[in-house]
Design brief:
There is one protein chain. With about 550 residues, the protein is α/β, with parallel strands linked by helices. The protein folds into 3 domains: about 110 residues, 2-Layer Sandwich (GMP Synthetase, Chain A, domain 3); about 110 residues, Beta-Lactamase, CATH 3.30.450; about 270 residues, 3-Layer(aba) Sandwich (Rossmann fold). Helix content is about 35%, strand content about 25%. The chain contains 20 helices and 18 strands. The strands form 4 sheets. The chain has a 7-stranded mixed beta sheet with strand order 12-11-13-14-10-15-18, sandwiched between helices. Strands 6-5-4-9-8-7 form a 6-stranded antiparallel beta sheet, covered by helices on one side. Helix 13 links the parallel strand 13 and strand 14. The two termini are about 45 Å apart.
Length: about 550
Amino acid sequence: MKDLTMSMRAPQRAAGAAPDDAAARVRVPLELLRERNPKPAALARAGFGTIEQLYDAVAAQFQLPRLALDTVELALDLANLLPHTAAVKHRIVPVFATVQEISIAASDPTQLAVFDWLARQHRRAVTVVIATPGEIERAQARLYETRRAPTEDTVDVSQEDLAAASSIVNSIIAGAIEQRASDIHIEATERETIVRFRVDGALRQIESRPIELHAAIVSRIKVLGNLDISLHHVPQDGRIKLPSAAGDIDLRVSVLPTYWGEKVVCRLLDNRRAVQSLDALGFEPKQRDEFLRMVRAAYGLVLVTGPTGSGKSTTLYAALNAVRTPEINVVSVEDPVEYQIGGISQVQVAPKRGLTFSSALRSILRQDPDVILVGEVRDQETGVLAAEAALTGHLVLTSLHTNDAPSSIIRLLELGVEPYLVAPALIGVVSQRLARCVCKTCRELYKPDAAELSALGLPQVPPGTQVARGRGCAACHGTGYLGRVAVRELFSVDDAMRAMITRRAAVDEMRAAAVQKGFRTMRYEALRLWLAGITTTRELIRVTRA
């Protein structure tokens, strides 16, 4: 980009106008400053002969540089710093940026709230230079040059692009596996294709590619996933299997049409980690023993709850692994089947063909099952069937989306499953979330201050207590986190709890009764991990919403 200092100039005098220094000494009325296009008569009344003189005076009055904006070459990535609509609304345009600073051209330098917002948004210092409204409008036109959104007729991929896309896709997938990513996001913007990985629950941008290659990259993924490469304006779902010496890796592919092109999200399913032991999942010995007691019961209903991405499926698979033997018949119904597990009959729902959770569950009950895994209870019918199956001699494992273990009981009742079914069927609930672990390579200990303790709702901690945080290093890609740990609470249902369920007791009453009998809440478990230096204050607050 052309050096800004070459475009900074002293005020210039127009023919027949007042001398520069005289114009510069004139105070600019605020109402004139805030006009988008000051009329010549308004300029004359204020003592200015030209629009340039007016903004020379603005620069002098506010002691800011005056920029000849028409001579400045603008880098296209500056458009990512400020939405076009905001630039037009406030008559500003970004002209230069470093990792520490952003330079903004403005005709009205009194918009302090706007400049402060930009500084907070980008965590960089904002410097202001003065330009005329016309210069700013022309710069906006250059910077926010509109690229026509692709249409079905414009998607044309050359053989050269397809060849390049093949190596790009291979590189992206290899990078995702190396970084332990759970998801790959490939999306088109106006000017480029962005590649992001979700690692330890957080998205991070990995690279960008020329937008001209986007259609070829998407087509390559469609070919690998056995999708229709001729369809560009309808969602598609597929699956890619990548064989390797260490074991197969599956990619669950979702293609979604967006304004600038199709967006691809691939969920990585590593069959090498498909079935793990409860110890490998971080169950504490007491938690493990209690959970094993639940899943080894002859019959009953066991729930695993938590938000999306909290590891519910992994825990359910580990439970199946703990109980499966050649002597029992294990059947699952899932949406979708994420991992293929030997010794288990797995059914994938297909609503378009009439195969739902409830219809599949009815058929499974005629297959002489001992253990049934229902991927999720989404409606009353599935909930009722699961409870009835649990009461007729089957062990049923399933999941719900709830914030904590006691709330899952209320959720079942709200779905329309009657208390007389829930109370005798339910054995227990495991509720969990995933917290990021402090990177062991850059881990450092420190004493939490009063502000941290206040944010956690803690009056104090034992003297000498130190907790951990990560400085950020190459191993964790500068995040300070590497890996995740499950924060769990186990809620056992006894006769007293069944009586409370039958009379529809409030969730707070059930939680209080459980705590009196030794129930350890998720907040308790998260605090234990924090004090052990495994996770951070920030993660503790996020997981427990303290």
